[in-house]
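Notes to self after the Tuesday call (sharing in case useful).
The group wants a holo model before anyone commits to mutagenesis around the pocket. I volunteered. Ligand is glycinamide ribonucleotide. Logging inputs and output together so the record is complete.
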Amino acid sequence: MKTAVLASGRGSNLQALIDAWQSGSLPVNLVAVGSDQSEAQALKRAEAAGIPAKAFPLNAYPDQLAQEEDLLAWLHGNEVELLLLAGYMRVLKADFIQKAGFPILNIHPSLLPAFPGLHAQRQAVEYGVRYSGCTVHFVDEGLDSGPIILQEVVPVLPGDTEDSLAARILEVEHRLYPEAVRLLVGGKLERRGRQIWVKK
Ligand code: GAR
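Result:
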């Protein structure tokens, strides 16, 4: 399955996907990495792994719709069949999602529907929850609102800061995202309305 990843920054989730792919434990073909940030470390990680990488900086376009149109044409040109958002810090427009024609997954650093949007780990620390975690979900037109594929709980410890919690959650993200992709590609996910059932 020809798979692309979009990332805006550091790209540690992208790296986890690349590592799994290179070790033969991710049954996809990573064919493209895109970013909305020209300086994203994710683009350098892709290049180091020999994956074509391209920036689509918003300021090069009249608006986000035009940027996403160009991005989608590039993904279609690469015959992408699956798109993974890995720290892509922009909400894709409905137009992009409707025209994509391939599934889009996202990973989010909280137990959705709690703490959607930016700074999920800071929101969790400030709220005072005892447990947070991460979620891999299908992308729909809302904000972190699509059907949930996998979630895993991570404890919030006394004295945690946004950064210490983010680091603890990130370790789990790096394992959970490849796992969700394996389930999808292996035909193990069955959609029943909003619910995603995992077949044995
Ligand atoms: C990850 O924690 C990811 O879950 C989060 O950004 C971080 C990216 O790190 N995504 C979101 O908050 C999306 N709403 P990375 O660039 O090292 O993978």
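Two things stood out.
The domain at 108-137+149-200 is CATH 3.40.50.170 (Rossmann fold).
The helical segments are 12-22, 41-48, 64-77, 94-100, 120-127, 162-185.
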